[in-house]
Specification:
Number of helices: 13
Strand order of the largest sheet: 5-6-1-9-10-4-11
Largest sheet: 7 strands, mixed
Shape: globular
Number of domains: 2
CATH architecture of the largest domain: 3-Layer(aba) Sandwich
Length: 431
């Protein structure tokens, strides 16, 4: 077998294969005792938890014998890899406010007065990654959104905008730079370095060759998605070579754009390009018309129902309530897709899901009241074996800063506190 040093040197000769150098160098190591990566998946406008009635989002039962309600049904295939969290609160400041919730969500500090956990981990455990932080959106910048519409805080009081365009995300990560003559819109990035790849593949044996093939096929699939997202419209596929602004912010395009960004996120992390990423679905008080999603249970011809509009359902008997429940279930299904993509990728002796920690979250609890108690949080992934999954943890009342600290510890960071009123890591979460 050709020695690893020569393989890594050959890989480094091509910009598209450079990320695999870290992959192969680590392939013979035992599974880590901490998570290799963190992904935050955000959806807007809370969940249906009408006062005096059971939440349609939160799991119920005991630690090991629990049931998932309608909104979390898409996570049933992954329940053994999840921890369902009840009783976490973001505190009373700005309670009843979407902006207030968005500011506290990842910072753990009222008014967004702190660095968010994703940015903190990007500059600590993720400091050596080619891309310290990935922040992808789907219509997250609609209507020139800024400030508290975004959830990632590089510094106290300061947010940055996510990238809403999968084409630009893909080019940033996977397209070799500096070749002004390359037709990046039409040619396959992989094909431009085919000769180098063939040489590298011939140098590999067994599992390493299979791993390279798997990553390259996944990369081709991402290419196909970002070059030609094809929602059906009367059975006709839309073949595009790019996504312009009018397409990017069309609600009919939202599912395809989101799916492309999920695929790019997973592929980038599989290639070792980053350890920390955030996927932001729309923005709080969202004007996203979800009834226009083609080929989904949400679709209603000639009828507009926005996320924020549906969240103010009033009485559960209001027709908007059924739409709101269906919307939240759809977001959970996209989170489930993310988990599935991680689970199908081998990583060491397990899968990428086993070696990751993934957070599902929103900025308020019940969308109708905007309260910040019993927040809709779900953790997924075994964090390299450090998390005890397949359980429901109920805390009565505990600040969510403890959850943020727990994310840091799951990633191997030694922090002892994060955000306001932090008591320590969540009890019972770790092995």
């Amino acid at each position: 077998m050709i020695e690893r040093r020569r393989i890594l040197k050959a890989l480094a000769a091509s910009a598209i294969t450079l990320p695999f150098a870290g992959l192969f160098a680590k392939s013979a190591r035992s599974a880590p005792s901490v998570a290799k990566r963190l992904i935050v998946f955000y959806f807007p406008d809370g969940v249906p938890a009408p006062q005096g009635q059971a939440s349609r989002f939160h799991a119920s039962g005991s630690e090991l014998a629990f049931s998932l309600p309608e909104n979390l049904a898409p996570l049933e295939p992954y329940r053994s890899s999840c921890v369902f969290l009840n009783g976490l609160s973001m505190g009373g400041t700005d309670a009843g406010s979407h902006p207030g919730g968005a500011k506290k969500l990842l910072t753990g500090v009222d008014g967004g007065g702190g660095e968010s956990i994703d940015r903190y981990l990007a500059r600590t455990v993720g400091a050596g990654s080619p891309n310290r932080h990935l922040y992808f959106g789907a219509m997250a910048n609609q209507n020139a959104a800024s400030g508290d519409k975004h959830i990632s805080y590089p510094s106290p009081g300061t947010t940055v905008a996510p990238e809403d365009n999968p084409i630009l995300s893909f080019q940033r990560l996977f397209v070799p730079q500096g070749n002004g003559t390359q037709d990046t819109e039409g040619a396959s990035v992989i094909d431009t370095v085919k000769g180098d790849l063939d040489d590298v593949r011939a140098s590999l044996e067994g599992a390493e060759r299979q791993k390279l093939d798997l990553h390259l096929e996944a990369l081709r699939e991402v290419e196909r998605r970002v070059k030609g997202l094809s929602p059906t419209c009367g059975g006709a596929a839309v073949d595009i070579s790019g996504i312009d602004a009018s397409q990017l912010y069309s609600p009919e395009r939202f599912p395809g754009v989101l799916r492309a960004h999920i695929d790019i996120m997973v592929q980038a992390m599989a290639c070792g390009l980053s350890q920390v990423g955030v996927v932001q679905c729309s923005q709080h008080t969202s004007e996203l018309i979800m009834s226009r999603f083609p080929a989904t249970p949400l679709y209603k011809a000639n009828f507009d129902m926005r996320s924020h509009q549906a969240s103010h359902y009033g009485d559960p008997g209001d027709p908007k309530f059924a739409d709101y429940v269906a919307q939240r279930t759809w977001f959970a299904s996209q989170f489930a897709y993310l988990l599935g993509e991680l689970q199908k990728r081998p990583d060491g002796t397990g899968t990428m899901l086993d070696s990751s920690v993934v957070l599902l979250c929103s900025e308020v609890c019940d969308g109708n009241t905007h309260l910040h108690d019993n927040m809709p949080f779900v953790l997924a992934g075994r964090a390299g074996g450090t998390l005890r999954t397949g359980r429901l943890l109920s805390f009565g009342y505990r600040r969510h800063s403890d959850l943020l600290l727990s994310l840091a510890r799951a990633m191997g960071d030694g922090a002892t506190s994060f955000g306001q009123e932090c008591q320590g890591v969540l009890p019972g979460l770790f092995v």
